[in-house]
What we know:
By secondary structure, the chain is mainly alpha-helical. It folds into two domains: about 1-140, Four Helix Bundle (Hemerythrin (Met), subunit A); about 145-265, Orthogonal Bundle (Helix Hairpins), CATH 1.10.287.70. Helices cover about 75% and strands about 0% of the residues. The two termini are about 45 Å apart.
Amino acid sequence: MRKAFKKRIFLLIDEKGRKESPWNRFFHLSIMALILLSVTGIVLESFGPLRERYGNVFQWFEWITIVVFSIEYLLRIWTADLKFTEDAPWRARLRFMLSPMGLIDLVAILPFYLPFFFQFDLRFVRILRITRLLRIFKLNRYTRALGLFTSVFFEKRNELGITMFVMFLLLLMSSTIMYYLESDVQPDQFPDIISTFWWSVATLTTVGYGDVYPVTGWGKLVSGVIAILGIGLVALPTGILSAGFIEKIEDKHKKEADEAADEAKPFKYCPHCGEKL
Length: 277
């Protein structure tokens, strides 16, 4: 009886149980709606007049959200052995808790409970409240769009890592060069290499806020070169991710075409030898 009930719960909350449980889709849509409403509430709460007038409503809704997310998290831990059947129950639960989605589920509720057990500075409590926005990543479990982005980002992590490392080297070199060129003329704007990083970031990304800029001839020359290099270098991660998306979409279309072709065949397997046609 307990195993059957546990199986029904698993089919209800697991994203792969949609084919077996008609309530699974309703559950997922409800959780998605709650996530979006929760994030909307966080944004609306930042408006002073709304916070003063509906502060109790925001608080009650936050409590309801935390209760639902907490129950969902505990149920996923409880049914983890049905998801990872090859592991022992305790290992399956630990595997879920340490998985990316398990950590996101934990971060979505943990900031609410920490102040009950530990005394924090009010500023740190505000930072904990900011982490509530991370619960939007829970949508990754229920939407294909975020799932596609995550898979592409994971597959291209090596190329992105190399690009980020090159960007860091360029930032470091440009900050060092600019510091030695401008620090004597503008000691308040370029006091050290670390502070000059802000100029490098603004220039390399071609944002150019204008709060810090070179005034010497050599400084302007280096700044122009860095800005030109930034146009191509900053675009590299975008190109890598775009190529990854195209590859994923093409693979998906090819898979769908192959499945359609298999369904169109009168026989999927040879009636004599049993091999797939």
